[in-house]
Amino acid sequence: MLELVLARHGQSYSNLDRSLGPDTGLTDLGREQAERLGNWLAGRGYAFTALFCSPLHRARETSEIINRHFGLEIIFDPDLRESEGNHLIGLPRRATPLDAEPRPPFGAEYQDDYERVNRVTERILSEASEGQVLVVAHAGSLGTMLRCILRSHALLVHTELAALHGLRWRDGLWSLQFVNRQEHLIQRA
User: Fold this and answer.
1) Three-state secondary structure call for residue 128
2) What confidence tens digit (pLDDT) does each residue in 149-186 have?
3) What CATH number did the domain enclosing 128 receive?
4) Is 7 left (phi over 0), alpha (psi -120 to 50) or beta?
5) Can you give the pTM of this predicted structure?
6) Which domain holds residue 125?
7) Sheet of 173-181, strands arranged across
8) Active-site amino acid positions
9) Number of structural domains, the chain?
10) b/e map 109-126, b = 16+ CB within 10 Å
11) What is the CB neighbour count within 10 angstroms for residue 167?
């Protein structure tokens, strides 16, 4: 069995001010979100066998904080980086909910992202075909990874900061376990 957990990085300075550029570090809140995420994953009994991460600073910092609980070698993959443009503009569309699923090649705005994320998805799934695998990246790349795995590209996947998506591969089926999970961020009174 393979359990794939996809985590978005915590709040970064560029989430607050886009003028700072695309590769900023985490804010104090972002570091707290990453710590809460690591605590929650460890407290839920996750025993990750692999950790893949985007090389961008905010994802690296998030994965390093989470990894204090797991002590894994972090595999940084440039294909997990965030999209350079607005990936939502180029998402394939259906005219009605009953139309056939769009198939590649897609429009230029989405095709490059799709190819890049599909490559890394295939690498991750071939290198870590069983166990529990954590991927720390960005909203756009994680959404595209879900679309690649589920082979459904006319699908918008919203991902909050430090939120999780979970999938399980068993008996020849993907099982979507959760999407945009965030209870680890809620402060208890």
Assistant:
1) coil
2) 999 999 999 999 999 999 999 999 999 999 999 999 98
3) 3.40.50.1240
4) beta
5) 0.95
6) 2-185
7) 74-76, 50-53, 131-137, 2-8, 164-170, 173-181
8) 9, 82
9) 1
10) ebeebbebbbebbeebee
11) 20
